[in-house]
Amino acid sequence: MPPTPTTSPAAAAAPGADGAGAAAGRPRAGGPGRRLGRSGGRPPRREPQGPAWIFLSPWVLGAAVLTLLPMAVSLYLSFTDYNLFDPPSWIGLRNYVQMFTEDPRLLRSVGNTLLYVLVAVPLQLALALAAAVALKSMRRGKDFYRSAFYAPSLLGASMSIALVWRALFNDGGTVDNFLSTFGVHTGGWVNRPGWALLTVALLTVWQFGAPMVIFLAGLQQIPGELYEAAAVDGAGRWRQFASITLPMLSPVLFFNLVLQTIQAFQVFTPAFAVSGGRGGPADSTLFYTLYLYDRGFTASHMGYASAMAWMLLLAIGIVTAVLFRTSRSWVFYANEEGH
Q1: Is the distance from CB of 133 to CB of 211 less than 8 angstroms?
Q2: For the CA atoms of 55, 60, 65, 66, what is the dihedral angle to 10 degrees?
Q3: Which helix (H) or strand (E) holds 86?
Q4: Per-residue pLDDT averaged across 289-317, rounded?
Q5: Phi/psi of residue 133, each to 5°?
Q6: How confident is the model at residue 171 (pLDDT cuts 50, 70, 90)?
Q7: What SS3 state is found at 90?
Q8: Segment 76-101, tens digit of pLDDT
Q9: What pLDDT digit, counting tens, does each position of 177-205 carry?
């Protein structure tokens, strides 16, 4: 019997050899040519989503019951006449029409709020940025000063601090007595229509700790090589600040600007404490939220107050959208092309 022909490994791998095409076209098990999915591989295993929803259920329940449901009720009440005691009666858009045509105090509150935002927010951000730059270059006591500057942000929103602030700027208070030593007699800032709003704005500016910490974190992310190269080219501190610090810090500046603007539109506690809840003197501290509180809980016009709340939400949304729109021309990100 003739011997069975055998094929050497070299002949089997050579082109044109018998079975070479089949060997070349057949992927090895587990090799890169193996196809997964429908054609033969095992489909990916889907993890059960039940445990995730169980852990998310407190947040979902809280958002639905404490946020979404009250918002829906408030939206309904804004189209009704509701005095907290009788059932609400549907009146359509009458509350919204009355806001802009029959309520001069509301327009005064809008003007006061806008003036407060334009004064308090820039001053607060400027002071926060100046403190952050000073802390960055400080070598000793940085942790102490950072904590000391941040403390007012934790305390300033309380009613007790607002009452102390009113006592400081009242007639015969610490500020009035201090200025009297220089021959300046103010009679109390909170009692003068031209100075009462500035008193509330200064309380907000004093709470610059939160944006300062965010600025400080942003400053620490700026590479030091940029300042070294600028110093070699002869740039001074102000030139480095304008050409390096501000452009590199513009995303953080924009973030703080949006947050502080939204908070400024919702200011309530300082105005309530300084004015005694009345918005005086002469409605100079009658902010929008304070007037909303007056209409809803003092005058029992909850339907009208609900309409005011939705207009405030719309105004904040418009201002935020404008800030985002204008940010394209002055906010620069490191991963953007051309920057």
Answers
A1: no
A2: 90
A3: none
A4: 95
A5: -65, -40
A6: confident
A7: strand
A8: 999 999 998 899 999 999 999 999 89
A9: 888 888 777 777 888 888 899 999 999 99
Coil, strand or helix: which one is 335? coil
Query: Helix, strand or coil for residue 129?
Result: helix
d(CA 193, CA 189): 8
- Comparing 14 with 176, the larger pLDDT belongs to 176
Q: CA-to-CA distance for 316 and 305, rounded, in angstroms?
A: 17
Residue ranges and CATH numbers for the domains of the chain are 115-282 (1.10.3720.10)
Helix, strand or coil, per DSSP, at residue 89: strand
Q: Transcribe 161-205 into DSSP letters.
A: HHHHHHHHTSTTSHHHHHHHTTT---S-GGGSHHHHHHHHHHHHH
Is pLDDT at 6 greater than 70 in this prediction?
A: no
Quick check: 160 and 269 in contact, CB under 8 A?
no
Per-residue pLDDT at 329 exceeds 70: yes
Mean pLDDT of 320-327: 95
SS3 content of the chain, % helix, strand, coil (to 5): 65, 0, 35
Can you read off the two tokens belonging to residue 326?
A: 């204008």
Nearest Cα to Cα of residue 311 among 88, 51, 57, 113: 113
- C-beta of residue 125 within 8 angstroms of C-beta of residue 337: no
DSSP for 21-84 reads HHHHHSPPTTSTT---STTSSPPPPPPPSHHHHHHHHHHHHHHIIIIIHHHHHHHHHTTEE--S
With contact defined as beta carbons under 8 Å apart, do 294 and 86 qualify? no
Kindly state the average pLDDT of the residues 131-135. 92
